[in-house]
Amino acid sequence: MEDVLILGIESSCDETAASVVMNGREILSNVISSQADLHMEYGGVVPEIASRMHVDAISQTVSKALSDAGTSLDDIDAVAVTYGPGLVGALLVGVNFAKGLCAVSGKPLVPVNHLRGHIAANYLCFPDLEPPYMTLVVSGGNTMIVKVNDYCDMEVLGRTLDDAAGEAFDKIARVIGLGYPGGPKMDKAGQGGDTARYQFSVPKTSNSLDFSFSGIKTNALNIINESKMKGTEIDLCDFTASYQTHIAEYLAGHVMKAVEATGIRKICLAGGVSANSFIRKRFDMESTRSGLEIYYPRLDLCTDNAAMIASCGYYEYINGTRAGSDLNAVPSLQF
Ligand code: KG4
Q: Which atom of ligand 1 sits closest to the CA of residue 15?
């Protein structure tokens, strides 16, 4: 079979990214233009600024991805683009740029769901990984357990009913003064801390595979406020270590319930929060204890990038998924 080259384009939040991937598995280029520093002073992503920055960066980012890969648009088999979920103005920049490329080159356009892209990041790190398996998707906007029956055939077994895991990190990080983006800063702050010093509640949901993070967050806020009222400060290292250990325990507990329910013992982690060292340690422990096969993408492929979009786009492409020039951004795209 001939090699298939996919150009992936990602602009759903605050990274403008483009990548060329061969056969869904081999990264030939991976270019990311991050706006994180710009949004830092506002304590979070400002949608209007994000859209404008994507407009400024997209053309050079795509050109660099093609040249780093030693390719031109002519060599590409299809253009895969994230069309949701995400910020509408940000998504529109990538979608319209991709449509323009396809209009001038006649190449097929492949629409990609950003969350399915996160799952595909694992294919770039583990050449032998194949469905079926189960995935815990933990990102800035979503938390879900997904049964991956085949590359393009997936079922959601559980999802968050309120906040995403990433929000539980980012919002509490902001309150304790760590700033944006909170996840990586909290991860660093908790290294070496006492993981049992602060206690948090375990949320109950009617479907035992659904998640809820609002109670854990309120719990954390109460601990911080009670401490202030007593005229003391929380111990930042112990507090963040305890909080992250609790979240890791909660996520792993749910995945273990899903393992029991499905009998699937191959687990992939995906999404920005899967970069968290407390979560990785907890899953490593489960692997040693229960003999589960655990996979997580390398750190730079956990957070938003276009290589994962190109990988997912490859499987959609060979599955026959195509979009026309009427493709629109879908900010609340369902899984
Ligand atoms: O997957 P992602 O890049 O964007 C979405 O598609 O949502 O995830 C971003 C999220 C943010 O909430 C960020 O704080 C979190 O991933 N994150 C982390 C770590 N690195 C990134 N959370 C915890 N620990 C980390 N090391």
A: 3
